Structures are given as C-alpha cells and as structure tokens.
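Researcher:
Attend to token order:
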Amino acid sequence: MSTPTALISGVEQPGMVLGLSCAGCRPRLYIFDFIPETYRACADDGRLLADRTGLADEIVEEFLEGNREFYTSSILGIYRKLPHNLGFLSDITQRAYYLSNQQVTREEIRGVSKLLGEDEIYQENTRWLQAVKFTMFPFQGGDHAAEVKEVCACLEEAKSYAANPPYEQVIESYIQNSATGRTDAYRDSQELWVKDIKPAVETILGFVEPRRDPYGVRAEFEGLVGGLLIHQIR
C-alpha cells in the first residue's frame, strides 16, 4: 500500500480545517495516518503548525484538542458495566424478548399471555415491543420474514432427500411453521418425529426451549441435527 500524500491546506472553509489529498484512495482510511504525520511534521508544536498552515491559533487549538471531545463523549460508554444477568428489566439484567424503553411488569406480561392463550396463540415465537403504556395492542407477523423465506426454500429442497414419507411430512410441517408462524404446525412435526423409529439422521428445527425468557414462555430458534453411528453402539 502506498503512503498517502498529506497536504496541509491553508484555505479555511466552514467545517474544514485540514485537507487530505491522496490519489486513488479513500480519505477515511488514511485519516489515521494523516493526523499522526501532521503532529510529527510540526514536532507537536501548535505554533509551528499555525505558522506552516496560515490558520488562526483558535482553529489549530480546536484541531489539537479535538481528541479530548471524542474521549469524553465515549469514555462512559466504554467503561459502563453491561447487564450481566438474564431477567426482567433492571440495571443488572438484559432480555431480548421484551423490547421496551419502559419497565415491563410481570403483571403486564401475565395479562398479555392470558389474552393470547384465550385466542390459542402460542408465544414461543413472539417478541414484545412496547413504546408506551397501552390498553390494547396489535399482533403483527412477519418478523425476520426475509431470513425465514430462505429457510423455507432450503427446507423445500431438503424434502427430496427425506429417508421416508413420514419424515417428508416432518419437513413439510417445519415449512408450514416457518412460513405462517403457526406453532401448532411445529407440534404436528413433533408428533410425526417420535413415530420415526431408529432414524439414521434426525433433526429438530424451531422455537424449542424457553430457557432465556424470564417469564418462561418465549423460546429461541434452534436447529439440531443428530446422526446415528452404528459401529459405536453395537
């Protein structure tokens, strides 16, 4: 990589103090070389930098002190202690199922869970997005639709490699579960799965375990593949 040619410009323009000229390069990548070279060229002497560039002392001082503004604006974020436990919203916990800028109470979660249960809507593949306190809420599908579309295309292709008709039905249930969000389709796949006795290869695909949800109902998407090694179990 060639060393960029750094030119200290004496032309004062709004929002621009120093200019960087580098033939065929992106200034963003070379600014990290340009700034240290500028310091070295002037021996870290602000007055010498002002003399060589013809810039006002105030502008040179802003350039030299600019790193302090960056430091003070980023230091708190760098050293802030991140939440280290899973759980309901607090200073020491984090959770990805309840996306809210307000405290989500257990009573609210319990009430919504009861309401969804009355409509036979399973919650394993749902997330909670709350911007304000509410008395009613919409139920919206299509989360991660682009990724799910690719999953369904791969599963459709995998059907031609199924070892037997029941397992082809398992894959079809996976597709229905992914395409529609209906978790009863996933339950259908599990009923078919347990009937496939001693398979050489078996899979589980879907929202399976609610381990990370503090309320214990919402699950993470998982894909597991198991293979039977006959020579090791004889």
Q: What stands out?
A: The first strand starts at residue 85 and ends at 86. The chain has three domains: 1-80, 85-130, 145-233. The CA atoms of residues 23 and 150 lie 42 Å apart. The helical segments are 27-41, 46-53, 57-79, 106-118, 145-158, 165-180, 183-193, 230-233.
